[in-house]
Amino acid sequence: MPQGKTKKIGVLAYANVEPYRESAGEEYMNEKQLAHFKTILEAWRNQLREEVDRTLHHMQDEAANFPDPVDRAAQEEEFSLELRTRDRERKLIKKIEKTLVKVQEDDFGFCDSCGIEIGIRRLEARPTADQCIDCKTLAEIKEKQMVG
């Protein structure tokens, strides 16, 4: 990789944006940062919507009435897995839209539990994060205790 170039990963690749570089003394979640995350969230949402459309067309085009029960069962299982994946993505789209509302209302980037900054790098890794790493870790520990 050439020097000075950073590899885009995850949702940054969908939006075709570089990781955000903070300036010294820059205020957290200023207009520039909010615009950066809005771009990422909108691109991610659009990519997921395209996947939904592709699945719909794929299922319509590939639907066949196979005479062999094994072939029919294999196709139904494939469709079932695709639908389950799309359902998870549908829920993620709703979460992205909820996060975009937070960006619009200048409430983005702060922990819902304790109110501190979530952090630029964490938000770039998971733009829909609504808790800081400490609160999320604590919530996951509590969840494990309740289940196990």
TrEMBL record:
Domain DnaK suppressor protein DksA N-terminal as annotated: residue spans: 33-103
Renumbered zinc finger spans (dksA C4-type): 111-135
Binding annotation for Zn(2+): 111, 114, 132, 135
Highest taxon listed in the record's lineage: Bacteria
Sequence ranges assigned to domain Zinc finger DksA/TraR C4-type in this UniProt record: 107-139
Primary location group: cytoplasm
Record's keyword annotation contains Transmembrane: no
Secretion signal, residue range per the UniProt entry: none
Record bears the keyword Zinc: yes
Name listed for the protein in its UniProt record: RNA polymerase-binding transcription factor DksA
Lineage: Bacteria, Pseudomonadati, Pseudomonadota, Gammaproteobacteria, Alteromonadales
Gene this chain is encoded by: dksA
